[in-house]
Amino acid sequence: MICICGPSAAGKTVFSGLLAAALQNEGIQAVVIGCDDYYSEHWIPDPLYGFDTVDAIDVDSLINDLNSLRLGQLKHRRRYDMGTRAVLWTPVEDKVDDAVDVVLLEGAFGPQLLFEEVPPDLLIYVEESLPMRVLRRLRRDTRERQRTVISVLRQVLRQMIPGEQRFIKPLKEEADVVVNRSDEGLAEVLTRIRVLCADRRKD
Predict the structure, then answer these.
(1) Does the CA dihedral 65-43-35-87 come out positive or negative?
(2) Are the C-beta atoms of 18 and 186 separated by less than 8 Å?
(3) Tens digit of pLDDT for each residue in 47-83?
(4) Measured between alpha carbons, how far is 180 from 27 in angstroms, rounded to an integer?
(5) Are strands 86-91 and 76-81 parallel, antiparallel or unpaired?
(6) With 70 as the cut, is the pLDDT of residue 182 above it?
(7) Could you tell me the maximum CA-CA distance found in the chain, to the nearest angstrom?
(8) 33: enclosing H helix or E strand
(9) Which strand (E) or helix (H) includes residue 3?
(10) Which domains does the chain have, with CATH numbers?
(11) Would you say residue 100 has pLDDT above 90?
């Protein structure tokens, strides 16, 4: 399992997609699991951190799905609707019905909760400058989540930045690889995963 973590709008999803495609090209079966789909249903925002906290994640569901995925027994994918705060379910793709070689778990919140029960084989930290991340949040939340610019900026200042300092920044010290841009660092990560897969096959 490869964990791809980092602050909000740093490019984790983009990097995960690029990595999954590169692995598939090398014949390594990879599936991406997004921690955003494991927010607790109808989560009431934390008074201090809002949605920017590990407490918002349904860790039991996340661990159960990861274990099912590793065994090739995951039948439905969990989806979280940020607008309604409801959990939805979709059938898994055919390729996920069998055991996969690599699970790419990406998200700002979620990896922190797994280190004891489901420790990752590789921890990747994706970072980007705060101004660029704020611009990305504004673009995404106003277009996809029908939020106002004022509400997004208020969340950034009051909840996102404090939540990152508390829960996300410490992961950088634990990371095996720090990626400074979502389109960089791919070669190093691929090399490390190749080694992990080769070692696993020997075992």
Answers:
(1) positive
(2) yes
(3) 999 999 999 999 999 999 998 888 888 888 999 988 8
(4) 27
(5) antiparallel
(6) no
(7) 55
(8) strand 30-34
(9) strand 2-5
(10) 2-202 (3.40.50.300)
(11) no
